[in-house]
Amino acid sequence: MAVRRLPIYLRALHELLDEDVQIVSSHELAERTGLSPEQIRKDLAYFGAFGRRGVGYETRILASAIRDILGLNRELRVALVGAGNLGTALARYTADRHHGVRVVAIFDSDPHKVGTRIAGVVVQPLDQMVDTLRQRQIRMAIVAVPATQARRVIDMLAEAGVQGVLNFAPTKVRAPRGMRIHHVDVTLELQSLAFWVTAEGEVSGSSSGGEPSSWQVRQCRAEKEYPPRQ
Length: 230
Fold this sequence. Notes:
Blueprint: H1 2-18, E1 23-24, H2 26-33, H3 37-47, E2 57-58, H4 59-70, E3 76-81, H5 85-97, E4 101-108, E5 117-118, E6 121-125, H6 129-136, E7 140-143, H7 147-159, E8 164-167, E9 180-183, H8 186-204, H9 214-225
Parallel strand pairs: 3-4, 3-7, 4-6, 7-8, 8-9
Antiparallel strand pairs: 1-2, 5-6
Helix pairs in contact: 1-3, 1-4, 2-3, 8-9
């Protein structure tokens, strides 16, 4: 889906703006993003006419247009649930790197973490989350809690009116009505990557010709069941 790739383009455009690049071609964006020029032109054309043939895209104008499409033309206030190592890292990373996205509320069930500050935000007890999110009208949240707590936290967020959740808990939770959840499981991604690393190791040590090796069989099956992401 084209909208899933827009943040990738926006990040590349921000890098180009930092380098004072005023005009960028689809080929230059392709080099930055790892996508094809054709895919980039197709994605951007889906949302409107932004470039000029033979010239390219005005970097600042295209970045502004993508921010508008993504709803980043105003600051997005996000809540973070889970102030452990991962949650702390996400809060600090978001504060330093994400244009237009700011963690404004953090919650945790550990009394030793409550009252501490992360990236300038005071950690609140979990039992205050629903009322706080309702009062501050926060509609997005990041979840970084253990798998055993994920269902309860998601239900509390739904009760508070949160509509979008980025879930880092190592489990998939069915989204309540009116909520969209994007799951990010680092462990699963590492295990998937291990397959390709193992396959590369096997093929580098195998000889050509003859019957297909075990890694070739696994690779063929994997490519059919799990095509590469773009």
